[in-house]
Amino acid sequence: MTRAWVLLLPMFFLTVSVAGGQSRDWHTEWEKIVKAAKAEREVAVGCEPAVDNQNALMEFSKAYPDIQLKISPIGARDFANRVMAERRAERYLADVFSGGSTSPTQVLVPAKALDPMRPALILPEVADESFWFRKKFHFADRENQYVFLSAGAVINDVVVYNTKLVRPDELRSFWDLTNPKWKGKIAAYDPRLPGGASNDMRFLYYNPKLGPKFIQKLFGEMEVVIAADRRQVMDWLATGKYAIALFASREVDTAKRQGLPVDELTSLKAEGSHLSSGAGSIALINRAPHPNAARVFINWFLSRKGQTAWQKNTDRNSLRTDIPKESLTGWKEQVPQEDGDYIFTNLAAYDDLTPGRKIVEEVLKETGKLRSGAPGAGGVQSPR
Predict the structure, then answer these.
(1) Residue 346: count of CB within 10 angstroms of its CB
(2) Could you give the CA distance from residue 132 to residue 320 in angstroms, rounded to a whole number?
(3) Is 371 exposed, middle or buried, given 0-12, 13-18 or 19+ CB atoms closer than 10 A?
(4) What is the 3-state secondary structure (H, E, C) of 332-366?
(5) Are 183 and 245 in contact (CB under 8 A)?
(6) Directed axis angle between helix 211-221 and helix 354-366, to 10°?
(7) Residues sharing a CB contact under 8 Å with residue 100, sequence separation 6 or more, in sequence order
(8) Which stretches of the chain are assigned E, i.e. beta strand?
(9) Is the Cβ–Cβ distance between 200 and 245 less than 8 Å?
(10) Do residues 234 and 252 make contact, with C-beta atoms less than 8 angstroms apart?
(11) Could you give the CA distance from residue 44 to residue 294 in angstroms, rounded to a whole number?
(12) Can you tell me the distance from the alpha carbon of 59 to that of 253, in angstroms, rounded to the nearest whole number?
């Protein structure tokens, strides 16, 4: 044996010892947490009401039958309000929330009602950021640690159209919507209202190729009629009263099933696309009644097996890149590419909607459209 090998041997054994110690450490910690979780016997999870989301989370019970999963179907806003009300009454009933990211970020983070996620990620395959889109974790909060974004689908549904009145090849850029040809022929769900148009407005306002100038021109010059009810907007579109509709895509599938001539305009790609997590975020509630079971649930949810179950049931792309995507509806269009041009509208950098909404408000006031309710005059319609 050469002298060089003799010198290297201690380093070799030290490396094996350290690596082995790390392996035993996480494994031992995990076993303790699972044992404690089984003693807690249950985990209380707030979950978006959609049946598909609930079905996805119920897969946890197959992996950990000794921990009862108690799901509360509830939207993010109502969940956040409920947690705050419980805390005022000194009650701590929730462990985890899985769903939309806005209310957890805007309500629960400032109230210091969440624990950071990273320390709760015990399993190596969960703690390893290289398994996720662009090889990093994505969070909705500015602290980059509380509201974990586990999903991200490419969205091209800001605009929907009447298939009898519009050819998709006429519109390749959002700026094409400002062509005089479409003046007085566009309807929109009110972008100043909470929810609904929020992500779409973030995409338009923060997109460097669109931004304030586009919003001003669209709402200031194109005589866009605004309604506070998406169903009203879809009715106008389907009957041909308007050729194009904005921020109303939630009603498209229902209308298409009824045989109405409407569809999403997916050809608008000149300014990139936006990523949306939808109901794909998860947060760990602090002072949880079942802290160990909560950590077991989170590690399962973010694992390869958990994200596969979530993606399969919800038909929404998981940002975990080591799971198959082919089962997703329109998977090639939905799954983001590593080098793609996207604005991930759930990130904290795009959180503030006030500037975009203010532009719409000011433009409508300047043109007098807030005082007019006649279709075609760019007025604001009240819900039917």
Answers:
(1) 28
(2) 4
(3) exposed
(4) HHHCCCCCCCEEECCCHHHCCCHHHHHHHHHHHHH
(5) no
(6) 30
(7) 48, 75, 76, 77, 278, 279, 281
(8) 42-47, 68-73, 96-99, 114-115, 148-149, 153-155, 159-162, 186-189, 225-227, 244-246, 262-264, 273-276, 281-285, 342-344, 380-381
(9) no
(10) yes
(11) 8
(12) 27
- 90 contact partners, CB below 8 Å, separation of at least 6: none
Are residues 335 and 154 in contact, defined by beta-carbon separation less than 8 angstroms? Answer: yes
Residue found by looking up tokens 């309710």 in the block: 373
Is the alpha carbon torsion for 101, 103, 107, 112 positive or negative? negative
How many angstroms separate the first and last alpha carbons of the chain? 89
Find, among 223, 215, 270, 272, the residue nearest to 243 by Cα.
Answer: 223
pLDDT tens, N- to C-terminus, the chain (384 residues): 444 433 444 433 333 333 334 455 899 999 999 999 999 999 999 999 999 999 999 999 999 999 999 999 999 999 999 999 999 999 999 999 999 998 999 999 999 999 999 999 999 999 999 999 999 999 999 999 999 999 999 988 899 999 999 999 999 999 999 999 999 999 999 998 876 788 899 999 999 999 999 999 999 999 999 999 999 999 999 999 999 999 998 889 899 999 999 999 988 989 999 999 989 999 999 999 999 999 999 999 999 999 999 999 999 999 999 999 999 988 888 999 999 999 999 999 998 989 999 999 999 888 776 433 444 344 544 433
* Phi/psi at 383 (5° precision): -60, 145
The separation between CA 273 and the C-alpha centre of its own chain, rounded to angstroms, equals: 14
Judge whether 193 and 356 are in contact, CB under 8 Å. no
Which phi and psi (to 5°) does residue 114 adopt?
Answer: -120, 150
CB atoms within 10 A of CB 1: 6
Contact by Cβ (8 Å): 318, 327: no
Structural domains of the chain sorted by starting position, each given as residue range(s) with its CATH number in brackets? 3-153+277-337 (3.40.190.10), 157-268+352-381 (3.40.190.10)
Residue count of the chain: 384
Distance, CA of 2 to CA of 125 (rounded, Å): 39
How many whole angstroms separate alpha carbon 205 and alpha carbon 25?
47
The closest of 84, 70, 69, 76 to 50, measured between CA atoms, is 76
Q: How far apart are CA 380 and CA 189, in angstroms?
A: 10
Contacts of 151 (CB under 8 A, 6+ apart): 277, 278, 279, 280, 281, 310, 311, 314, 316, 317, 318, 319
